[in-house]
Structure formats: C-alpha cells, structure tokens
Design brief:
157 residues; alpha/beta
C-alpha cells in the first residue's frame, strides 16, 4: 500500500510518499510563487498533488490538521487570522483532491515539537531525511505518526 503525507502550506508544501511493502520513500516539496494570487497558488498546489496521485497511486492520505482558530502565537510562531484563513483554503482544496480521487484522509495532529526535534524524528524513519526540505521532513513526521498509530511496520533506510 502507498501512503502520501502532506505538510500543508501556501508557499512550501512538503510531501512524503511511502510504499509499505517495498519500504520505498519519496520526499519532496511543492513551491509556489509568492507574487501569484492565492487562487493561482492553490490551483498550482492542486495540479501538483494530482500529478503525485497519478504517478504514485496512493491508497491513503495523511494531512496535518490545521487549528481552526487564530492565536497570537502558535508553536512559537506568530499567526494572523488572514494567514490562517488562506491556509484553510489550501487544505480544503487538497482534501477535495483526495476525496475526488476516493483516497481516505487521516488528519494528523499538529506538530508541537521544535524544528530540531522534528529533524531527529524524521531521521528515525529515513536516513536521507536530512537531505530533504524542512517541509518534506514535516510530512515525513506525519507519515511516521500515522504508521505508528496504525502499527504498520516501516523499514526505510
């Protein structure tokens, strides 16, 4: 079974695609152009995720669950209401892509670790994670959490 994990964003969307039988892993990041409108950026994100679905044929999706409300500081980072609303639009579009493709979605809890701990956790599942972007490593951590919760073995090297 193939599982795709998404660390959602408007600017840099991390993904990890894992094949449970062969223990193969693909890490990557979708980058959007900051000078494009939110609509153009979401359209591009959706096009790229559709390409990943077509190429890899995942049977399960894992997406980080974004908080539903704004806080002045969230995990040590300032978050404003407008940014959170744009992010929710992107996540909604990503979810629609998976729903349309009839791929079940698991919403992963928000990461609460520091970036340093996130890097260490990601390296536990894949030694090559250190070479991947921060966003791809975050997607990998969501994938690792899902695998542990579902008790699916992983032997990625």
């Amino acid at each position: 079974m193939k599982i795709i994990s998404i660390d959602p964003s408007i600017a840099n969307i991390g993904y990890a695609i894992y094949e449970t039988e062969d223990h193969k892993l693909v890490l990557g990041t979708i980058h959007t152009k900051t000078n494009h409108s939110i609509e153009e950026r979401i359209r591009y994100i959706c096009q790229e995720i559709c390409k990943l679905i077509y190429e890899h044929r995942p049977r399960q999706a894992v997406i980080e669950k974004i908080p539903e409300y704004s806080r002045k500081r969230y995990n040590g980072v300032s978050v404003n209401h407008g940014s959170l609303m744009r992010l929710h639009r992107a996540v909604g579009a990503i979810q629609a892509i998976f729903i349309n493709a009839e791929i079940p979605i698991y919403m992963s809890p928000v990461l609460r670790s520091t970036k340093q701990i996130q890097r260490l956790n990601a390296i536990d599942i894949c030694k090559d994670a250190a070479k991947a972007s921060e966003h791809a490593r975050a997607a990998l951590i969501h994938l690792e959490k899902y695998l542990k919760q579902k008790r699916i073995s992983h032997g990625v090297h």
